[in-house]
Every structure is written in structure tokens, then in C-alpha cells.
Amino acid sequence: MTLLEDDSLAVENQFRLFGDKSSFALELCLASEQPDRSVPEDSVGSWGGWRLWVGDVNFCRLQLDTADGPVEVQEVRWFLAPLIRWLVGSWTPLFHETHLPPETGWGDRRPRWARLAYLAMMELSGDSERFRKWQDWASRHALRSAAEGGLVPDIFFQRVGDELELSWGDRLQPGGESATFLLEDGRARVPVDDVGEALSAAIDWFLEQPSVARAPWSDEVRETWRCIADGQSGLEPLHWYLDSRREAGPLSNKLFAGLDALGKARPVIDGAWLGILAPEIAMFGDLTPQISQEAAVTLLTEFYNAKTQDREPENLSELVYDDPAWTSTSPFEAGYALALDVLDEADPDPDAPRTKLEELLHGLSICVRNVELGEQGPRGVALAGAGLRPTILVNLDHPMNRGLGRRFTEAHELCHILFDRQRARPLAHSSTPWAAPSVEQRANAFAAMLLMPTTRAKRPTATTLASLSRGVSILADKLGVSRIALRRHLANLGEINDYERDHMLGARDGWAGEERSGARWGLG
Fold first, then answer.
1. Which residue ranges does UniProt annotate as crossing the membrane (predicted)?
2. Beta strand 47-54 with 186-191: parallel, antiparallel or unpaired?
3. In degrees to the nearest 10, what's the CA dihedral of 457, 459, 464, 467?
């Protein structure tokens, strides 16, 4: 049988389903006959079709423009070898590499998903040298890297915690002007184990099919896959997670040295992928490679010291629930709403002129500890969940924790403790520019609203820009926040207009140093 543009697959060649369509699944079908066309040597015996499912949505549904009019097709019809070869060749980074290529200038406005970041950099950089590192990254994470002449949906994969985040859209494929994938822009997260189990089963089935097994090109793919499936990659998955490379890099080495110094066992990876992360590994994944070895040991020491057999305080547990930041249309709006909910439930003195954050944290039995993690260390760290005493670590060396910035850090970490325990697992989260954008953006908004709720942060009465600026400065002191944080927050709330905000943000005063450093974590 030949797969023509307006054909369906024959009944005897039914699709084989691997995984669960409601979570993640891949369907494969090998056709009984090759198409009447030239067949590349590295694809012989693999003509067929495939469908990719996430949340009961078929990502391979597309419309083809034919001489007889548009035809809707439910699968990608092409050689299967390029898809399987790409999955096997990219397997370890695809499942474990969490960091995008380094880029400065985004700050708190970072694109929240890998596909958006890639397209943004493509628009900014074009074909320049600057973009090549992104092209290299995309070769491991963009499904269209598996096209090799076929039509493939525009999907990106990125590891985030214990999940794989998929982001997609309907971008036109070069050479595919007559085809449109019927898929609106979106994103989803799926447990790593769900994806790994589905894809590994699909690869096993494909490589065992007679037409594939007797093709010479499949020998190398089969051998590579056997090594991966047998767990012969060693700690390579961990190196990709921490250092974005095959061999151990700065963070892997500092993690290993820290574990050795504390007499703790090094991680062991048993299988083709690293599914559920140990909390201390997840904590290291958000650190900069420039963190000092001393700070790494301190961080691990604090983590192990926070281990406990005690149950979490009931009044804290009542506030905790899993509310993934990535599902929100706006992390800032979500953060604002969550902060107001917490104040409604736990504000120790609603009539006070400023939020009594220290009392609030004490009332929830959250331990706040001062630590020295260096200027390259995280601004703050949140520890909580089963087996961990709820703790906020404040890095005294971080420039943003000097003066009033400390209150913002503590409020930010409280958001992580309450709402970022992925699938109710223990939380060990480092707040840095390398952490997941949606998670950090929501925590920033939460901190702003917790410290500057609408009941306390009102526009000062003023008749001139100068008097408004003075009034905002007085109000900032009253609330215990920086001037820049209050100015941006009032603008977000609509209490001041953009012209007034820009005028005040451009003003030079005795707080200029704080304001310049604070802009990195601002809400603008």
C-alpha cells in the first residue's frame, strides 16, 4: 500500500498506540508497501505514519491543499526513520537539558516557554553568529529537526523539574506551504516518566519490525538505543540537567564535591532517563555555574539540616496547594491574586500600616535563616514539603538583600513554599535568573502584592509630579519597600499612569543605587 495525500491507512496496518492519549502518546504505523518514489538509503523500510497526542489533542492533524481542494489528514505521512533516529540521537539532552542558551537583557520579561524564546531570538539575531548556539540547542529540542523532508508539527521540548514542557504553534514550515497543521499556539507539561515510557516503547517496537530490522541503516540506531535503554549513559543525564553538556561541568563537579565533603552518596541513575529529581539536584539546577564551591557546600548543608520527621504545621498546610504557574495566562495576575488570598487568611494585623511579614512567617512556623552564598549565589532558597522543615534561606551576600530588598526576598520565597510544590513533592528551590520564568514571575508578583496590598498601597494625594514623587517615597518607607518597587506596583495597579511612572523612574535621588539593582526584579 502507498500512502497518498488523500489516502487513509489500510485496516491491516492499524496504528500502534504507545502511552496514554490523555497525557502523552505516540502512534506509529508502518505501511505494507513503499511509496512509488526515490527512497533514501537511511530510511528504507520505514514508510508509514505517526501521530503525537498530548492531553487528548492530536498534534499531527493537518490540512493539505491539493488539486482537488483542501484535504484534512490525521497523521504525518512520511518515513518513520528520521523521527526515530532523531529521538534516539537527541534522547539524553531532550529529556534532561533544562537551560536555554544564555542570553542577557530579558530580565523579568523573559519568554516563558522554549518556543517563544527561540522565535524571539530568531527575530533579534537572524542568521548571525549570536543565533548559532540557539540553532544548536533547537537541533536537540525542536521536533522539526526530525523532518528530513517530511512535514512535522512545530513543537519544542524542555525539561522543567520533574516534567517535560511542550510548547507549540502553527509556524509555516519551509517547503511546506501547501500544508497547515491545525494547532493553535499553546503549551503543556507532562511528567517525564509518561513521555519516557511512551517513547521508549515506541522505539523498541519500531526497531523490531522486519522491514526495519533488515535495513542496514538501522544497525547503528539499534546499537545506540540499546546503550541508552540499558542505562549505559551513566551520569550523562545529570550532566545535561546541570551543565547542558554530555560530560561533567561546573555544577556537576560542585554538587559531587559538596556531597563528598558531607559524606553523602552521589546520585545513581538506573535507566534511560532521570525521572523524579532528588530535591537537592533540583535545587542545584537553578544555580549559576559561577557559584563558589564553598557556597555549594553551605547550600547542601542547609538542605540536609532542614530534614525532619516532624509533620508540617496544620495552619501552613491549609494554605498549601499545587497551582502550577505555567498554566496561568498571566503569572503576574496569578501572583497578585494568591497574595491577596494569603493576606485574607493569615495577615497577623490587617489594620497595620505595613504587612508584618516577620510575624506572618513566624505564625506559619517557617524558619528564616541567614546564609552566606556569595554574590553569585541565589537570592533566596525555599525548602518545604515532606521530610523538610519549612525554611527560607536569605543570601546575605546577594546585592538585592541589602536594606529593604530582604523583605521582598522573604515574601518571594513564601510563594514558592505555598504554591510551587510540584505534584506535592519536597521543594528545594533556588531563586535565580536561571529558574523557570513563569515560576519566578509569579513569585515576584506575589511578593509585591503581599508587601503592597491594595488596601495599603494607595495613590498619594498630590497636585504636581514633584509632590507625587515625594508622596510615593514616603509611602514606600511606610510599607517597608523600595521606591522603585512601589512605583512599578502602583503603575501595574493603575494608581499612577505611565507618564508619572516614567518620570519618577527617571528621577535621580539618594536611592538611585538601589533602584538600578532593583530593576532586575521589578514588575514592569
1. none
2. unpaired
3. -30
Higher pLDDT, 437 or 380: 380
How are beta strands 179-181 and 16-20 bridged, if at all? unpaired
Q: Are 255 and 296 in contact (CB under 8 A)?
A: yes
The SS3 assignment for 187 reads strand
In angstroms, the CA 283 to CA 161 distance is 10
Element (H, E) at 284: helix 279-285
Q: How far apart are CA 57 and CA 16, in angstroms?
A: 17
The whole-number average pLDDT for the span 72-99 is 96
- Note the pLDDT of residue 68: 85
Selected residue with higher pLDDT from 393 and 32: 393
Instruction: Bin 166: left if φ > 0, else alpha if -120 < ψ < 50, else beta.
Output: beta
Three-class secondary structure assignment of 98-139:
CCCCCCCCCHHHCCCCHHHHHHHHHHHHCCCHHHHHHHHHHH
Q: What pTM does this model have? A: 0.89
DSSP codes, 43-73: GTT-EEEEEEEETTEETT-EEEEETTEEEEE
Rounded Cα distance between 206 and 376, Å, is 47
Closest CA to 310 of 386, 422, 364, 367: 386
The confidence score (pLDDT) of residue 14 equals: 84
Q: How many CA atoms lie within 13 A of 395 on its CB side?
A: 24
Residue-range domain boundaries for the chain: 11-229, 278-451, 465-521
How many residues are listed for the chain in this entry?
A: 524
Helix axes 331-346, 437-451, angle to 10 degrees: 40
Which of 11 and 250 is assigned the larger pLDDT? Answer: 250
- Of 97, 60, 75, 68, nearest in space to 29 by CA: 75
Return phi, psi of residue 348, to 5°.
-70, -20
Helix pair 498-505, 465-479: axis angle to 10 deg? 80
CA–CA distance, 93 with 87 (Å, rounded to integer): 10
DSSP reduced 3-state for 395: strand
**Average pLDDT of the residues in 278-299:** 94
Mean residue pLDDT of the chain comes to: 89
Rounded to an integer, the average pLDDT of 356-361 is 97
* Torsion angle of the four alpha carbons 243, 249, 250, 255, in this order, in degrees rounded to the nearest 10: 80
Answer whether residue 130 shows pLDDT above 80. Answer: no
CA 99 remoteness from chain centre = 8
Residue type, 266: R
Closest-CA residue to 479 (of 353, 360, 359): 353
- As a whole number of angstroms, the distance between CA 346 and CA 453 comes to 13
Closest CA to 40 of 237, 261, 216, 238: 216
At residue 109, the pLDDT reads 66
C-alpha cell at position 178: 501547501
Q: Is residue 438 pLDDT above 50, yes or no?
A: yes
User: For the chain, first and last CA: distance in Å?
Assistant: 59
Give phi and psi for 190, each to the nearest 5: -130, 140
